[in-house]
Amino acid sequence: MPRPDPADARARRAVRPVIAYPGDSLPAPALSLYRAARAGARKMDEVLVPPREARCFRVAAGQVFRISSVQGPQVGDLNLWNATDLSERFYSGKTRALHGTHLSTGDRMWSAFPHLRPMATIVEDTLDWYGTDEFGGRVHDVIGTRCDPYTHALLSGGDAYHHCCHSNLTRALAEETGLSLADAEGHVHDVLNVFMCTGFTRNTGQYFMKASPVRPGDYLEFFAEIDLLGALSACPGGDCSAEHSSDMAACFPLLVEVFAPQAGALDGWTPPAPNPYDRSHGT
Known about the structure:
By secondary structure, the protein is α+β, with helices and mostly antiparallel strands. The protein is 17% helix and 28% strand.
């Protein structure tokens, strides 16, 4: 049982919140430039990610990649790395702190310390109409981790399931880089849950998922700020309307396409430099 309210409980609860990292102090992405470059871009590559599997893809700085629903409602778990340095990887926690629990157009995927720079910027989101539903659900979250075989074993009493997104991403990265599974696993990290509809319950604060509103033809499009290696898992939960880590859910492929702008379209633009902090830590 919780303790009884102190005499000043109402006053304490009434204290107004303060945004920890105001968005107007962040460097603004050049969305108009990115979109203009995208308008004349030509397709360079595509990767079809099978259901309950993951695949890697590569995108050069200044190129655009699109993740699309192509056959049915399906969510995906996205990892990003610096293409030449796997230690620089997507930092979902800091991205959440800077932009909020869910991402959409104009938000950026930031890299881990000590780099802390934009890796990719969302330039188009066909689900931006969804907003926030009556349950507090929104789309494209950076609050969940990724379904994994360790949690599955914990909750199932020891059952081994090998097509959780964590394992899918591990296999894909190992195949792409030649790393062993053990070494590749250490580079797999918390994800952007593409197309996933999630939130927190108001009464218990528990993370929830619900059926994704994504439909074939919907997509999320990113401008690559640096040279990227990406990996995308087509989650074994399908649209995550009921469960994940399952062979029972209806699952569909996801399509990744890479587009290169025409020569000169990005004149004057350069990839962002690593964070300027000197790493002296007060010494």
